[in-house]
Amino acid sequence: MWSWLLHRVTGLAVLLFLLVHIVDIGLLSFGPDVYNEGIALFSTGIVRVISLGLIASVLYHAFNGVRIILIDFWPRGARYQGIMFAVVMIITILCFLPMAYFVVAPIFQPGTSAVALPM
Amino acid sequence: MKVTLRIKRFDPDKDAKPYWAEYTVEASPVDRLLDALNTIKWTIDGTLTFRRSCAHGVCGSDAMRINGRNRLACKVLIRDVGEKVTVEPMLGFPVIKDLVVDMDPFFRKYESVKPYLITYDNEPGTERLQSPEERARYDEGTKCILCGACTGSCPSIWGNPDWVGPAAIVNAHRFIFDSRDQGTAERLAILGQRNGVWRCRTIFNCSDACPRGIPVTDLIEQVKRAIVYGDRNID
C-alpha cells in the first residue's frame, strides 16, 4: 500500500512542479532580464531545500514506475513486488544522495553557486 | 491474560452514528480473537453483533478489520494482536449492525463475472478430463471462501463502490484459466470494461488480507494480460 500511496503523492508533487516550471519558463516571453531575475529564485536556500523534495519525488516516481510496468507485463512481477519495492527505495536513495549534495552544498558555501544571486 | 477490545459499534435503531466501546476480557494467548468476541457476547453484552459460523477459517463469515487489517476473527490468535485490539467492520461495505456488513453488493459483483462452468459443446458422456498441469493452472483461485477480506481492504473499492473488486476477479480467474471452460471470451469482455480489472492499481492490500494466502494481485494481473493479449495461455 505504501508503494502506491507514495507513487500518488510524488506524482502530484511532480505535477505541481510542472505548473511552476511552466510559469518560470513563461517568464522568457517578458525578456531575458525578467527571466534571469525569476530563475535566480532557484538558487536561494529555501527553494534549494524544496528542490530536494522534487528530486526525491521524480526519482521515486520514475523507479517505481518501472516496478509497476514489471508487475503488469512480467508474469512473475507480482510475486517479486516486495523485493522490487525494496530495490526501488535503495536505488532512489543512492541516486538522491549525490544529487542532494550538489543542490544543497552552495547554501553553505556562498559565492560558489553556478548562478550568482543578483541582489 | 487480560485483553482489551476496542470495538466499533453501531445499531441503526438506536445510534445516529457509530461509536467505540471497550471491553476487557480474560483470554489465553492461544485463543482466537473470535473466542474473545464470543466471551463478550455471552457474558458481558449480548447485543454485540457479528457473523460467525464454522469458526475454523472455512466458511468466510467473520472477516473484519482487526488492528487496521482485514482478517478472519477465527484465524487470528490473541498473542498475534496483543493486549489491546481494535476491531471494526470491514471498510467499503455498508454496515448493517456492529461488525455485520451488507454483503449483497459483493455477491452481485461475484455473480456478474459468471463464476460457473460454461460449455457450448455437446456433453461428453464421461467426465471432462483434465491433466494435473491444467488443474494446477487455476489452483489458487479455487481456495477462495468469499469472505470479502480482499475486496474490503482495497482502496479502489473505498473510492468507487461500483468497482467489481478483487474477490470477483479471483473467481473469474478460476474459470478463465480452466481448460474445460469455454466462457473465457465473455468473462474477459465483462472484466475489460471500465469497472473491470483496470481499476486495480496493484496496491497489494488484497494479497495481504487474504486469509487463504491467495496471491490475489498476481491473479488479477494474469487476467489483465489475458485481456491485453487476447490469450489465456500467455503467462
Automatic annotation (TrEMBL), chain A:
Pfam families: Sdh_cyt (PF01127)
Cellular location(s): Membrane
NCBIfam families: succ_dehyd_cytB (TIGR02970)
Protein's UniProt keywords contain rRNA-binding: no
InterPro entries: SdhC_prok (IPR039023), SQR/QFR_C/D (IPR034804), Succ_DH_cytb556 (IPR014314), SuccDH_FuR_B_TM-su (IPR000701)
GO biological process entries: tricarboxylic acid cycle
Alphabetical UniProt keywords: Heme, Iron, Membrane, Metal-binding, Transmembrane, Transmembrane helix
GO cellular component: membrane
Domain of life: Bacteria
Organism lineage string: Bacteria, Bacillati, Chloroflexota, Ktedonobacteria, Thermogemmatisporales
Family: Belongs to the cytochrome b560 family.
Cofactor: heme
This protein's name: Succinate dehydrogenase, cytochrome b556 subunit
Organism: Thermogemmatispora aurantia
Automatic annotation (TrEMBL), chain B:
UniProt-listed GO biological process terms: respiratory electron transport chain; tricarboxylic acid cycle
EC number: 1.3.5.1
Domain 4Fe-4S ferredoxin-type as annotated: residue spans: 134-166
Pathway(s) the chain acts in: Carbohydrate metabolism; tricarboxylic acid cycle
Pfam families (UniProt xref): Fer2_3, Fer4_10
A GO term, aspect molecular function: 4 iron, 4 sulfur cluster binding
EC top class named in words: oxidoreductase
Reactions performed catalytically: a quinone + succinate = fumarate + a quinol
Sequence similarity: Belongs to the succinate dehydrogenase/fumarate reductase iron-sulfur protein family.
UniProt domain 2Fe-2S ferredoxin-type: residue ranges: 1-91
SUPFAM superfamilies found in the cross-reference section: 2Fe-2S ferredoxin-like (SSF54292), alpha-helical ferredoxin (SSF46548)
Protein name: Succinate dehydrogenase iron-sulfur subunit
Record's cofactor remark: Binds 1 [4Fe-4S] cluster.
UniProt keyword Iron present: yes
Organism of origin: Thermogemmatispora tikiterensis
Keywords: 2Fe-2S, 3Fe-4S, 4Fe-4S, Iron, Iron-sulfur, Metal-binding, Oxidoreductase, Tricarboxylic acid cycle
Cofactor list: [4Fe-4S] cluster; [2Fe-2S] cluster; [3Fe-4S] cluster
Keyword hit for Hydrolase: no
